[in-house]
């Protein structure tokens, strides 16, 4: 039995931290997993920025409330879910994801969680498990699923490489160039066809 494992940001919705950078005018928040392979290093960098600028969860959630799925993403996801079981595996956080899942029609998402003080300050984060995307794909495989995985960033490569088929979607040139053997798609139509052929 097949199951498709999709990244969230950059694949189905815009990058949350980039939207936050644009809203706050703080360009340093634009750094994402497309730029930094070490997720812990990236999150410590973000937490330090939030602390320095006295920003908290409420400010980020206000930005997220205004984010819509990428054009065509919901139709793509709806059509894909008619064909095959699909799960979103993301390194985002439950405190960020809920309004986005509502706009996508409540697909299943596995993500992480934030540590937040009573005053709304983000003090830390908890990963669901170590190497969460790769670990989740391997767990699904141990349950008898054959996985097909797709994403756009460094932190997606583990689950993509461990799957029977893997794809890049709208990945930056640096990641495409470093992984020339991975099929790369720029449109949902081509992406959908690529996944269907792998089933």
Structure description:
There is one protein chain. With 199 residues, the chain is α/β, with parallel strands linked by helices. It has a domain at 2-13 and 70-112 and 128-198: HAD superfamily/HAD-like (Rossmann fold), CATH 3.40.50. Helix content is 44%, strand content 20%. It contains nine helices and seven strands; from the N terminus they run βααααβαββαβαβαβα. A seven-stranded mixed beta sheet has the order 4-3-2-1-5-6-7, with helices on both faces. α3 runs parallel beside α5 (94-103). It is globular. The termini are close together. The mean pLDDT is 97.
Outline of the structure:
This protein has 9 helices and 7 strands.
